[in-house]
């Protein structure tokens, strides 16, 4: 719960100016249960192309479950989720298509430990997108340069710091040329001195026009890049507002209490 991104304000991306853009994600009346436990309650969310959404809320409020539903790592039982005009249903072809368009970055990096950084980055482009190996490697090197670690390409994940591993995870996701990037607490497992190097990469990505949904408690990041901040509690979207309103004038008592605890 830090203001790590304050120092990066000069890099603040231009406002996303997405008012006239079409929705790339639509969530309508979505409910999910784990057995008897009603984990997500009547969620509604429209995200326009290029928008940057930050989701925050207490542990256990359903943030991870929600974004995992958006690329069908979890399935919902009621309501609709439509991603890039494809409704997520049991149809495996739709799921495969959506997974190609939606990149995800996890708290614990989830790199393949037995593959080098370069191999981690090339695996899906080669096997899923059928990109020829040489082209995949060239593209991967460009993304590794973008996250500022081309010199680590032939190392294994275990030889890298946490911040470097997370930047590899971001590069790996970008190698699939996704239309949407989901981040689930990407800096929570990092030592404080490594948080900024990952947030800087995310800020740069936001500036490039990527549609992003980020679960994070980095409120400095939220203020710098978010178009909207969403507060979840108990499986519900309790409040949603642009960052300046969200932080200065939260409407709901649950949001106020949460902000008092973290700011
Ligand atoms: P958050 O990311 O906001 O911390 P989660 O989405 O991880 O919250 O979890 C929301 C709730 O669902 C929590 O109470 C958690 O214990 C529960 N939960 C998460 N995953 C499962 C699962 N696979 N089976 C049953 N309950 C789960
Ligand atoms: Mg979580």
From TrEMBL:
Keyword match Ubl conjugation: no
Sequence ranges assigned to domain ABC transporter in this UniProt record: 25-259
InterPro entries tied to this protein: AAA+_ATPase, ABC_ATPase_HisP-typ, ABC_transporter-like_ATP-bd, ABC_transporter-like_CS, MetN_ABC_transporter-like, P-loop_NTPase
Keywords: Amino-acid transport, ATP-binding, Cell inner membrane, Cell membrane, Membrane, Nucleotide-binding, Transport
Pfam entry (one): ABC_tran
A GO MF term: ATP binding
Source superkingdom: Bacteria
GO cellular component, one term: plasma membrane
Region (Disordered): 1-22
Topology versus the membrane: Peripheral membrane protein
Cellular location(s): Cell inner membrane
The keyword Nucleotide-binding is assigned to this record: yes
Family from the record: Belongs to the ABC transporter superfamily.
Protein name, UniProt field: ABC transporter ATP-binding protein
Natural source organism: Marinobacter vulgaris
